[in-house]
Specification:
Largest sheet: 7 strands, parallel
Order of helices and strands: EHEEEHHHHEEEHEHEHHEEEHHEEH
Number of strands: 14
Structural class: alpha/beta
CATH topology of the domain at 7-40 and 131-313: Rossmann fold
Strand content: 15-25%
Bound molecules: guanosine-5'-diphosphate
Mean pLDDT: 97
CATH class of the domain at 7-40 and 131-313: Alpha Beta
Strand order of the largest sheet: 5-2-1-9-10-13-14
Low-confidence stretches: none
CATH architecture of the domain at 7-40 and 131-313: 3-Layer(aba) Sandwich
Number of helices: 12
């Protein structure tokens, strides 16, 4: 039976999208809102690219390349190869031909004066997605990564061009003072029954959302279940640089460190059964198998988390 409560999920890209797919099957779509990181967004070839929004759109619409977890399945790269062969364009950021269609539509609609929230609503509608995807802000808030070897890098230079190998010294969110939380996000949070942080990278995917002025304060004022979960399983990230960044920032690589990162913002935390148990008087703690290897695992984890939270009331 579909869960009939308003759920707002703060979320990044590929890791978060796994849980999003499970939630999409167990929550009524009109009750399900994703507030998506746009700190990874950038401009390339004059096109606005929103990697985390795209990953969620492709995942929830079934277009996604299942092996990669991002991009469009069975996509070709004719345009990118022509750009490289004819004009020497550096192809370090993969842009498939079908994927380019999304960036062209988005850019054209932005240029016509629509906000990113409006554009995303239109794109998701066309792709048949019934849950709501809200960019964290309509303003641009690019994540800048300061590294020991290369100095400051734009997020995609750090993540894709340099394959997250440079050592991270600090991370900042450019222009975040000028990026108010959107009305749509505010309204979604005001109507929420449950807020969930996806198991996305706290430092790269969730920190940009929390950096949007007003968002932390709004969350702090809510008196409802606000639950985060571990992206760290058995001492490592399932994928990507989360554990590496924690080490580089001098943070112990553990689920407890992730719970501590959210601090007073959360009142519940889902840990993985493979991790060393820890205690925290402030938090309701659950231990589950959080490794989402296939669709049934994603659905059953989504269901288990929501059933656990429903049980708080009784
Ligand atoms: P990105 O924006 O594409 O880097 O993806 P996210 O930030 O949304 O997610 C990356 C995080 O997801 C990593 O820290 C992974 O450890 C975590 N992750 C990926 N798959 C799983 C999974 O199956 N279970 C859990 N608990 N975490 C996962």
């Amino acid at each position: 039976m579909a869960i009939d409560r308003n759920l707002v999920v703060l979320i990044g890209g590929v890791g978060g999208a796994k849980l999003a797919l499970g939630l999409n099957q167990v929550v009524r779509p009109e009750r399900l809102t994703f507030v998506v990181n746009t700190g990874d967004d950038f401009w390339r070839l004059g096109l606005k690219i929103c990697p985390d929004l795209d990953t969620l759109m492709y995942t929830l619409s079934g277009l996604v390349d299942p092996a990669a977890g991002w991009g469009v399945a069975h996509d070709s790269d004719t345009v990118l190869r022509s750009l490289q062969e004819n004009y020497g364009f550096e192809p370090w950021f993969r842009l498939g031909d079908k994927d380019l269609a999304t960036h062209l539509m988005r850019t054209q609609m932005l240029r016509s004066g629509n906000t990113l929230t409006e554009v995303t609503a239109c794109l998701t509608d066309r792709l048949g997605i019934r849950a709501r995807l809200l960019p964290m802000s309509d303003a641009e808030v690019p994540t800048i990564v300061d590294t020991a070897e290369k100095g400051e890098l734009g997020f995609q230079e750090y993540f894709v061009k340099h394959r997250w190998q440079p050592t991270v010294r600090s991370i900042r969110h450019q222009n975040c003072e000028g990026a108010p939380v959107s009305t749509a996000v505010q309204m979604a949070l005001a109507a929420a029954d449950i807020v969930l942080f996806a198991p996305s990278n706290p430092w790269l995917s969730l920190a940009p959302i929390l950096a949007v002025p007003g968002l932390r304060a709004t969350l702090k004022d809510l008196t409802l279940p606000i639950v985060a979960m571990t992206p760290i399983i058995a001492g490592d990230a399932v994928k990507g640089p989360t554990a590496k960044i924690m080490t580089e920032l001098g943070i112990d690589v553990s689920a407890k460190s992730v719970a501590d990162y959210f601090g007073a913002l959360i009142n519940g935390f889902v840990d993985d059964i493979r991790n060393q148990p820890f205690e925290d008087d402030r938090l309701r703690l659950a231990r589950m198998d959080t490794l989402m290897t296939d669709l049934p695992a994603k659905v059953s984890l989504a269901r288990a988390i929501l059933a656990w939270i429903e049980g708080w009331a009784s």
